[in-house]
């Protein structure tokens, strides 16, 4: 049984390694030219934009009067700071008179010194310049650095590793997923590949290259496959086209009808659920292995039962987090549809609302199923590891009884192991009382060591006896 389980875990590790290498090589293979998306000519034209800084506010009306209709009005003087027009000063009107802002109380109120983005457009009355947005690079840097500092100060090494994982996730999204979709590849397949890269990297950054990471990665990959099948089935059942968001209109304008919007929707479900899914799978794996370490006598079935009890508590919190995250992003949409005087079932049947329902529930269902699946894989792996370590410890005790003194390298060579597992097994034997530390420090020179008469084995700079 031990040999079979070991072969299975070795096969899983090998498959994960091959898949990971394949995913790194796959983007290098050119996509079929017929599938590549063609940018719409209108979208490909050069945008006449630049950055500027507000020099002065020439006129300002908060919109309280009846003449303004409740809309604010503002006239500002802006100096262009980049591009061919750098150094020029332009007067820009916004609000009730200019008609560039909607009737909303949340109106931009510019102040001298504000950095803004400018855009020149051609209209019936000639060229016109507009303020399209604030320049937010400096505030965003402050926000990001605050997050980074908090994670590092509180999490230390683990926090730093989590930041590496977050950075890798961002790189995968923007350097792998998005370019490959634009290159014409299937959006769902690209998102699955990107999700596997992110998930496996997170597992190995958390645990290192060991049996825990293999088990967590296997659980994550299996859960992603199940979530993909559920998302595909639910999207087909509800006849969703993937056109329920405002962004799809911009994509249609830029790329035309060549994009697979249903594939984008299903791929988005995978990526959206990925963060919580990785968290649950890694937590379950860690919990099961800790149970096995605390009580090595637990069988794989008992580890599964105890781990599942822990996972049930995790499920309720994680599913609630996922549903609320989706509800928060779609809150303006829900408010909009609440205004329609129509039956509730009709509101729910509208594609934008149905998309959010399918998105949240497909991800949540995949998350729920990930708990028993990952717990099962982790329980089998942990039981195998305990059985393997117990066998190694028994062999070590047998060898220690046959000879007066051993060094770790000799033991490892005799057992056909590397030094690391042997030292770990010796440390476990010492913790369990089978070995006792001899006062003093091991010099490593056994021939001239004063402790050699009573020393049975030396490791970790210390000498040990029975």
Explain what the structure shows.
With 466 residues, this protein is α+β, with helices and mostly antiparallel strands. The protein has three domains: 43-135, OB fold (Dihydrolipoamide Acetyltransferase, E2P) (Beta Barrel), CATH 2.40.50; 157-389, Multidrug efflux transporter AcrB transmembrane fold (Up-down Bundle), CATH 1.20.1640; 405-465, no CATH class. The chain contains 13 helices and nine strands. A five-stranded antiparallel sheet has the order 3-2-1-4-5, with no helix packed on it. Strands 6-8-9-7 form a four-stranded mixed sheet. α8 (300-329) packs antiparallel against α11 (351-402).
What proportion strand? 5-15%
> DSSP helix count?
13
**Which parts are unreliable, with pLDDT below 50 for 5 consecutive residues or more?**
1-6, 41-46, 64-68, 97-106
CATH class of the largest domain reads Mainly Alpha
Question: What is the CATH-assigned architecture of the largest domain?
Answer: Up-down Bundle
How many strand segments?
9
Strand order of the largest sheet: 3-2-1-4-5
Can you write the helix and strand succession as a string? HHEEEEEHHHHHHHHHEHHEEE
Describe the biggest sheet? 5 strands, antiparallel
Q: Rough shape?
A: elongated
Instruction: Tell me the Rg in angstroms.
Output: 31 Å
Overall pLDDT metric: 78
Structural class determined from secondary elements: alpha+beta
Q: How many domains, as an integer? A: 3
CATH topology of the largest domain: Multidrug efflux transporter AcrB transmembrane fold
What percentage of residues falls in helices of 4 or more residues? 55-70%
- How far the N terminus sits from the C terminus, by CA atoms, comes to 32 Å
């Amino acid at each position: 049984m031990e040999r079979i389980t070991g072969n299975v875990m070795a096969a899983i590790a090998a498959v994960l390694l091959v898949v990971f290498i394949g995913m790194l090589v796959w983007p290098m293979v050119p996509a079929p030219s017929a599938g590549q998306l063609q940018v719409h000519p209108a979208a490909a034209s050069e945008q006449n934009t630049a950055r500027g800084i507000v020099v002065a506010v020439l006129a300002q009306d908060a919109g309280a009067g009846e003449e303004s209709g409740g809309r604010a009005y503002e006239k500002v003087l802006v100096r262009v700071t980049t591009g061919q027009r750098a150094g020029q000063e332009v007067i820009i009107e916004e609000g009730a008179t200019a008609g560039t802002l909607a009737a909303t109380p949340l109106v931009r109120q510019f102040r001298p010194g504000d950095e803004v983005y400018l855009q020149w457009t051609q209209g019936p009355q000639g060229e016109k310049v507009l303020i399209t947005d604030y320049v937010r690079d400096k505030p965003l840097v402050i926000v990001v650095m605050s997050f980074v500092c908090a994670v590092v100060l509180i999490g230390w090494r683990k926090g730093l590793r989590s930041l590496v994982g977050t950075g890798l996730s961002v790189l995968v999204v923007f350097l792998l997923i998005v370019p490959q979709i634009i290159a014409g590849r299937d959006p769902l397949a690209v998102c699955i590949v990107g999700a596997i890269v992110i998930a496996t990297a997170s597992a190995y950054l958390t645990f290192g290259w060991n049996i825990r990471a293999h088990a967590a990665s296997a659980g994550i990959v299996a859960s992603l496959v199940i979530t993909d099948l559920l998302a595909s089935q639910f999207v087909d059942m509800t006849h969703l086209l993937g056109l329920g968001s405002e962004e799809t209109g911009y994509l249609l304008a830029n790329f035309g009808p060549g994009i697979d919007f249903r594939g984008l929707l299903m791929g988005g479900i995978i990526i959206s659920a990925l963060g919580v899914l990785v968290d649950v799978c890694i937590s379950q794996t860690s919990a099961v292995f800790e149970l096995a370490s605390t009580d090595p006598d637990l069988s794989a079935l008992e580890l599964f039962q105890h781990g599942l009890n822990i996972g049930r508590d995790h499920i309720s919190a994680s599913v609630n987090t996922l549903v609320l995250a989706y509800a928060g992003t779609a809150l303006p949409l829900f408010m909009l549809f609440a205004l329609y005087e129509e039956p509730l079932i009709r509101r729910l049947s509208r594609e934008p609302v149905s998309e959010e329902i399918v998105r949240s529930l497909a991800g949540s269902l995949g998350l729920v199923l990930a708990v028993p699946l990952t717990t099962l894989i982790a329980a089998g792996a942990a039981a195998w590891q305990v059985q393997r370590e117990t066998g190694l410890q028994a062999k070590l005790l047998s060898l220690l009884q046959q000879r007066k003194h051993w060094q770790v390298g000799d033991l490892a060579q005799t057992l056909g192991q590397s030094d690391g597992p042997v030292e770990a097994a010796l440390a476990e034997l010492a913790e369990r009382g089978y070995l006792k530390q001899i006062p003093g420090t091991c010099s490593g020179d056994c021939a001239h060591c004063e402790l050699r008469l009573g020393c049975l084995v030396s490791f970790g700079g210390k000498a040990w006896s029975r």
